[in-house]
């Protein structure tokens, strides 16, 4: 899945506008349940993002290996082998492309990690609020 779709999933969760309601015990428990559900969903999304990053790395590893194999193959009309500088240049382009692709996914993963941290802090606040009320 593309990073854009992951970002859309995060927007659909409406985490940014989430309000913590601790006015009553029932509202507090409902809020805690919603936070637990959001945490599960975010963990699944993060798992999928990490799987996509692994797949991208594997894909580019294969492409880099193909470039290595093509060193010994003759190509073109004159049947000349690729020069070392040409192979290095192709590898640099592939590596840069891979890093840029992974970076877009890393931004999504960092956003998810930030949300999970905020949820953890909110859950701590809610639990301490409950303990304070119950005594």
Summarize the structure.
By secondary structure, the protein is mainly alpha-helical. The protein contains 3 helices and 2 strands.
Strand content: under 5%
What count of structural domains? 1
Oligomer: single chain
The coarse silhouette is: rod-shaped
- Using the CA coordinates, give the radius of gyration: 24 Å
The percent range for helix content is: over 70%
Report mean pLDDT, rounded to a whole number.
89
By DSSP (H or I, 4+ residues per run), the number of helices equals 3
* First-last Cα distance: 48 Å
Which structural class fits the helix and strand makeup?
Answer: mainly alpha
Profile the largest sheet.
2 strands, antiparallel
Molecular structure report:
The chain has 135 residues and is mainly α. The protein has one domain. The protein has three helices and two strands.
Identify the notable features of this structure and list them briefly.
single chain, about 140 residues, mainly alpha, two-stranded antiparallel sheet, 3 helices, about 80% helix, about 5% strand
């Amino acid at each position: 899945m593309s990073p854009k779709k992951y970002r859309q999933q995060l927007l659909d969760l409406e985490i940014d506008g989430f309000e913590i309601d601790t006015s009553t015990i029932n509202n507090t428990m409902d809020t805690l349940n919603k936070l637990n559900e959001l945490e599960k969903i975010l963990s699944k999304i993060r798992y999928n993002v990490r799987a996509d990053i692994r797949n991208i790395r594997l894909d580019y590893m294969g492409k880099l290996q193909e470039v290595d194999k093509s060193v010994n193959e003759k190509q073109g009309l004159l049947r000349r082998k690729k020069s070392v500088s040409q192979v290095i240049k192709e590898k640099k382009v592939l590596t840069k492309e891979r890093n840029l692709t992974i970076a877009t996914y890393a931004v999504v993963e960092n956003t998810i990690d930030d949300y999970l941290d905020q949820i953890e802090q909110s859950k701590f606040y809610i639990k301490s609020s409950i303990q304070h009320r119950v005594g």
